[in-house]
Amino acid sequence: xNIENLFDIHEQALNLRVKRAEVLASNxxxxxxxxxxxxxxxxxxxxxxxDNNQKGMYAxxxxxxxxxxxGVSDIELTERANPCKxxxxxxxxxxxxxxxxNVDVKIDNGLxxxxxxxxxxxxxxxxxxxxxxxxxxxxxxxxxxxxMNAVDKGELALMWDGLDDNVNAQPSGVYRFIAKANxxxxxxxxxxxxxxxVNSITINKNGQPVxxxxxxxxxxxxxxxxxxx
Length: 229
What we know:
Elements: H1 3-6, H2 8-29, E1 38-40, H3 43-53, E2 78-80, H4 86-96, E3 102-106, E4 109-112, E5 118-124, E6 128-136, E7 142-148, E8 154-160, E9 173-183, E10 186-190, E11 192-202, E12 211-214, E13 218-221, E14 225-228
InterPro entries: Flag_bb_rod_N (IPR001444), FlgB (IPR006300), FlgD/Vpr_Ig-like (IPR025965), FLgD_Tudor (IPR025963)
Function: Structural component of flagellum, the bacterial motility apparatus. Part of the rod structure of flagellar basal body.
Subcellular location: Bacterial flagellum basal body
């Protein structure tokens, strides 16, 4: 007996998986078509039917399979309402990879815990001068000012160790980080991004952006994420 024929069922199984991948790819490519209904196949059921159509381990002729070689030409594909759109799927998959990692969030209120530095970045625009960072406590008092006079355009890393201008340790709590710069003779506030860990994600309905549940910051939209590390 030919050993390849003996284990021909493995090739059939691979062909079935290829066929199912083609069906799912068609679902995705037609995801934005309102009249399209997604299709699928029960892999185990189809494979079992193929196996039953064979005569034990001795059924080796390809004619024992359906004509298309996949064993599914006479198998009715089940139809179901298309549950999602391709952009939504891509965003959900992308967001799920963020769990357990640090992200820089577009926000200026940061949680400081004693013994842990607050880290982040600021976006320095073109032709910016007199760049500085103010750190304010919950009462709105400026406890520390960091001046960065000569900086280039781009991202500038920031880190606060919890000390004020007088080198006094500050208590744990929420602090506001306000970055400013002078551009074309006017003082403007520039974007601040603070770093935090992603605990989980929330998949929203109706095409809304995926929400990241970020440690110390709560729910943050994917649109407010600058970088991931």
